[in-house]
Design a protein that fits this description.
Chain A is of the alpha+beta class. Helix content of chain A is 49%, strand content 7%. In chain A, helix 2 crosses helix 3 (48-59), helix 7 runs antiparallel to helix 8 and helix 8 (124-155) packs across helix 11 (236-259). The longest helix of chain A has 32 residues, at 124-155. Chain A is elongated, with a radius of gyration of 35 Å. Chain B has helices at 6-9, 12-23, 28-38, 50-59, 82-111, and strands spanning 26-27, 63-70, 73-80. The longest helix of chain B has 30 residues, at 82-111. Classes of the chains: A alpha+beta, B alpha+beta.
Chain lengths: 433, 112
């Protein structure tokens, strides 16, 4: 390769902070210029070796390096803005990767819902796949972002300290990302993601951060040694084997994380629990009269039997089925558990414990009402913090940290519009008798 | 003209490069050779130094470089832009004013 003669010039330019594209092009142009000069000198009668020596003297690559270094405009942005390049840039890049990958998952789930009718709430396989993808985002995106950042910094020959700072920031932020499938009992399903960690459970975030660095940094240092000529390049098959091993390990790790997602009915840390046990009782049929006008006198024989109301004087509204008190109680308990669970998730934010609940009941689709801008946007959470409704699908929980969450799919009606219609009038309230 | 006077020569490479590119697009070796030939070696720009200068002109939008393969050789050809032409006009006027002033002084000194 004709540029090989000037490879050291390219390395000098990169090490001095010149942007890679300028360095690469300068080497390419220098090599072409050298060939043209050699040809010109050979035309003048010089031997090949003499022509090359003369051309090398005239070109003087050291002068090119000095001229390029003297031009700050030709330097890479890493050298011009070092602080931003090792703090803002890696974090922004990581956030872009997270948003992009989660958007892809949400888009895929939405397409399945709207085009193929596969509901997240109704498909156990889709829930598992979405959970696997979100766990993949949690584990793989920090590795990918930190690796990309290290690669960018290495291409610009940035100092090691800057690279380590950026990679550490990405791994730490990546370790606090939590994402999962949100399947509340009486609410619409959704995918949620946010950043947060519990001081009581630091082992997992630290492990994830360490895992990210353990994967990325050895590759970075090896690539750096290769670029400096201290290590040899790997063959394509070796690279494929290493990548396959890393991907396999990541997949196993993600699968293990998906398998240990806590279920709704496995909470043991609840401080309060309401247990309602109502034995099933056979309830006799009851005829409900609309209005009783008169009841005839009963005879002694008929005293023990239920009163018989003449057909002319009673108008039965309907013959009701016996009330299944056990199922009613179970439903009420589920509603209560759902409300408690929802409040607890809002309060907990996006800690790993708050992720991945399993549905127990599903609300059938019902006509929707659009979210009104005049509705109350801000709610105060009982555990502290506020809940801001950005839209009918998205909320932001502002507590210790700011946590966004969005739901997908159909929005079921709340059904509580007439809930307090029959409440007794409160003091100061007016109500017709 | 001696190239040792850096301050006097600072704007000349830019002027010469833009002037040469105003007629047709060229690659680095062609530019260096044209300057050598046209100035009869009076202006000797370091041939390797030409490239950082070209990159800088491109960064400022005065020239535009693109890779082209001609006769089996791939090179980076540079062409002047509209902004480069305005800059060339400005530099040319500036150079003529300076050169005219210097010439007037030299002519006056001869007549004095």
């Amino acid at each position: 390769m004709r540029s090989a003669r000037f490879a050291s010039v390219g390395e000098q330019l990169l090490s001095a902070g010149v942007a890679p594209r300028h360095a690469r092009r300068a080497v390419f142009e220098l090599a072409g210029h050298f060939d043209d000069l050699v040809a010109e000198l050979q035309d003048k009668g010089l031997e090949r070796a003499e022509a090359e020596a003369e051309a090398a003297a005239r070109l003087n690559p050291d002068a090119l390096v000095a001229a390029a270094i003297a031009r700050p405009e030709l330097h890479s942005w890493v050298r011009r803005w070092p602080l931003a390049s090792c703090t803002v840039f890696p974090l922004a890049m990581y956030m872009a990767f997270v948003v992009g990958s989660i958007s892809l998952i949400v888009g895929g789930v939405t397409v399945l819902d709207q085009s193929f009718g596969v509901k997240l709430a109704g498909s156990r396989e889709l829930q598992q796949f979405a959970a696997f993808c979100l766990n993949g985002v949690r584990c793989a995106v920090p590795v990918f972002a930190a690796g990309t950042f290290c690669s960018v910094m290495l291409a610009r020959r940035a100092p090691i300290a800057w690279t380590l700072i950026g990679a550490a920031l990405v791994s730490m932020l990546g370790a606090t990302l939590n994402a999962g499938v949100l399947l509340p009992l009486n609410d619409r399903p959704g995918l949620q993601a946010g950043f947060g960690f519990s001081t009581k459970a630091l082992a997992e975030p630290l492990f994830r951060a360490g895992l990210t660095l353990a994967i990325v940094l050895p590759i970075y240092f090896w690539r750096r040694a290769v670029s400096l000529g201290r290590a040899r390049e790997l063959s394509a098959s070796q690279v494929v084997a290493i990548v396959a091993v890393v991907v396999l390990h990541l997949a196993i790790f993600v699968s293990l994380m998906s398998a240990r997602v806590p279920r709704l009915n496995s909470h043991t840390d609840d401080t309060s629990m309401t247990l309602i046990v109502i034995p099933p009782v056979a309830v006799p049929r009851v005829i409900v009269p609309e209005r009783v006008i008169s009841v005839p006198a009963r005879s002694r024989e008929s005293a023990d039997s239920p009163p018989v109301i003449p057909a002319e004087t009673t108008t039965p509204i309907e013959e009701r089925a016996p009330i299944d008190w056990a199922s009613e109680a179970a439903l009420a308990a589920r509603h209560r558990a759902d409300a408690v669970e929802l409040e607890r998730r809002r309060a907990r934010g996006f800690t790993p414990e708050a992720q991945g609940r399993e549905p127990e009941t599903q609300v059938p689709p019902a006509p929707e009402f659009g979210w009104s801008r005049t509705a109350q946007r801000v709610e105060t959470l009982p555990e502290g913090g506020i809940l801001i409704h950005v839209s009918e699908r998205c909320v932001i929980v502002v507590s210790v940290v700011m946590l966004p969450a969005c739901g997908i799919g159909e929005i079921p009606v709340k059904g509580d519009l007439f809930e307090h219609m029959n409440d007794p009038p409160a003091l100061g309230d007016w109500k017709d008798e | 003209m001696n190239t040792s006077s850096a301050s006097l020569m600072s704007g000349i490479p830019e002027l010469l490069v833009l002037q040469l590119l105003d007629s047709r697009e060229m690659y680095g070796y062609q530019l260096a050779r044209s300057i050598r030939v046209l100035t009869a070696d009076a202006v000797a720009i370091g041939e390797s130094v030409l490239y950082p200068a070209l990159h800088l002109l491109e960064q400022r939008g005065l020239v535009k470089g693109r890779r082209r393969t001609v006769d089996g050789r791939e090179r980076v050809y540079y062409a002047i832009t509209a902004k480069g032409r305005r800059r060339l006009e400005h530099l040319t006027n500036q150079w003529r004013r300076i050169a005219g002033g210097v010439e007037a002084v030299l002519a006056g000194a001869r007549h004095a």
